[in-house]
User: Fold this.
Amino acid sequence: MVANAGIGILCKAVDTSLADRRRQAVNLDGVFRSVKYAVPAMRRAGGGSIIITSSVAGLRGSAGLARDCATKGGVRLFAKAVAMECAAEADGIRVNTVRLGVIDTPIWTKLPVSAGRNVPIDPNEVAKAGVPLGRAGQAQDIANGLPRLCRIQLYDRWGARDRQWHDGRRATSVDLN
Assistant:
């Protein structure tokens, strides 16, 4: 099962409205709901694999995206907690997170600021500043990689391992403790 939920709103933390913060809750709530119903079904089936997408913003922070950083960081820790719960049950369920970087998807043309206006952003321009290959990854790169992640056994001492796609093609293991 892949849990992928996300919304981004550009706004400084001190300018954030409560309404915008509540809208951003979909990042964590969507993942929570997916896991809540997938785990019992996987236990009945004898195990499985859960992959939860997060964001590099949830690891290192990003100015103007404080709410996104908080919710995606929460997603990452939620996945670790679920992995520990599944490991304690010895239920054969693997839980992994994939922290996506700059991926060229329509969200970049739909990022609203707190006032509600959309601010189109070129993901390749963003990628030039912090992605090793200097370009945004493609959604197909992620779609091609996730099935492999479902098939391989990735465990650390808690039963979870974070994976991070820096550029949509190359994956490196991080945050194993």
Remarks:
- Helices lie at 18-24, 26-45, 57-60, 66-89, 123-130, 139-151.
